[in-house]
Design a protein that fits this description.
Helices cover 71% and strands 0% of the residues. It is mainly α. It has one domain (3-85). α2 (17-27) runs antiparallel to α3. Pfam families: SpoVIF (PF14069). This is Sporulation protein.
């Protein structure tokens, strides 16, 4: 993809694509059965997306991934963040 695509995406979303790529690279070998790793990823995604996650929501996401075996990807976290913000 060309650089203009990512610059336009950054302008529209306010999300720094370098941060997204760094996060994606860090996820490749991450241990998602490790609670500390999952919490770290949640906090990083929350920061990048500019969507705060309260302790209760963080605990639900961690449980879902570590204990229930849900896959961790942007879609999963985004869905959980959106559900948590609709209270």
């Amino acid at each position: 993809m060309n650089n203009n695509f990512f610059k336009n995406l950054e302008k529209k979303t306010g999300v720094d694509m370098n941060e997204v790529f760094e996060l994606a690279n860090s996820l490749q070998n991450a241990n998602f059965k490790d609670e500390a790793t999952v919490r770290s990823v949640i906090k990083r995604v929350s920061k990048i997306a500019n969507k705060p996650v309260n302790k209760e929501m963080e605990d639900k996401i961690v449980k879902s991934i570590v204990n229930d075996g849900k896959q961790l990807d942007f879609g999963t976290i985004s869905n959980m963040l959106n559900k948590g913000n609709k209270k």
